[in-house]
Amino acid sequence: MKKILLLTILFSISFSFALAHQPKLIKYSPSSNKPHNVVEPEISKAYYGKLIGEPHYYKIESKTEFSFYAGITIPKIDDNIKWISLEVFDENNNQFFFADGRVYNWKEWYEPYARDWYWIGPQIGTHNNKEFKESLKLEAGTYIIKVFNDDNQGSYSLAVGDIEFFGANILEKISIWAPILFYIGPYMDIFYWNKFDFKAYIPHVFLIILFYLLYFIIKKIFFKKKKYFE
């Protein structure tokens, strides 16, 4: 029993170190009037959304200077690139950054842990001669990130922040990654990436096997006790 519990914990921890961003599903269209609030903008998160006719907006509010990073990736379904651009404004609608996806040289990228291919798009950050930029410093204030393209159609992943954090202890790690492994991954593949990937269901298969082993062990213990008292 202890070995099975330990295996479950290690299985959960392995994913906490494997993925760079905390995935967040955006099941609606955050508008300019009601943007999606980005909590703790320095902590790395990946917002998975789908444009369905209107731009998407994300809002950052910080009372202190903070590190800022934003970047776009899209699923590589085929060789056709449905480009997406990024704009960043302050609360007075002054443009701070514009990352034009139309003219950007999108590069294919294989994510080894999720085992998916992506197109890496424009990023906002400091150049470091690496695949992904590093964050830059922004003053305290309110900032709006706009995600859009010419017809506002297509799936995307908006990365915000570059500090990896997946819980301070084992229980926090499990509470963060359990819904990601068993719900977000399969949901994202079907409704965002428009594909079916059996690898997304590996945790579900693992859980079924784990339940079967627990049932087998409990059954063996129960029958042993019953036989002993006879």
Task: Explain how this protein is built.
The protein has helices at residues 2-18, 170-191, 202-229, and strands at residues 22-25, 36-37, 45-52, 56-62, 66-68, 70-75, 85-90, 95-99, 107-111, 116-124, 136-138, 141-148, 153-160. It is of the alpha+beta class and 230 residues long. It folds into two domains: 1-19 and 167-230, no CATH class; 22-165, Jelly Rolls. Strands 1-3-13-6-10-9 form a six-stranded mixed β-sheet. Strands 2-4-12-7-8 form a five-stranded mixed β-sheet, with no helix packed on it. Strand 7 and strand 8 (95-99) form a beta hairpin.
Features of the shown structure:
230 residues, alpha+beta, Jelly Rolls, 2 domains
Q: Briefly note the structural class of the backbone.
A: alpha+beta
Q: Order the strands across the largest sheet as they lie in space.
A: 1-3-13-6-10-9
The low-confidence runs, each spanning 5 or more residues with pLDDT under 50, are 1-19
- The number of domains is 2
Estimate the strand proportion.
25-35%
Shape: globular
The helix fraction, in percent, is 25-40%
Mean pLDDT, all residues:
79
What sequence of helices (H) and strands (E) makes up the elements? Answer: HEEEEEEEEEEEEEHH
CATH topology name of the largest domain, in short, is: Jelly Rolls
State the major sheet.
6 strands, mixed
Assembly annotation: single chain
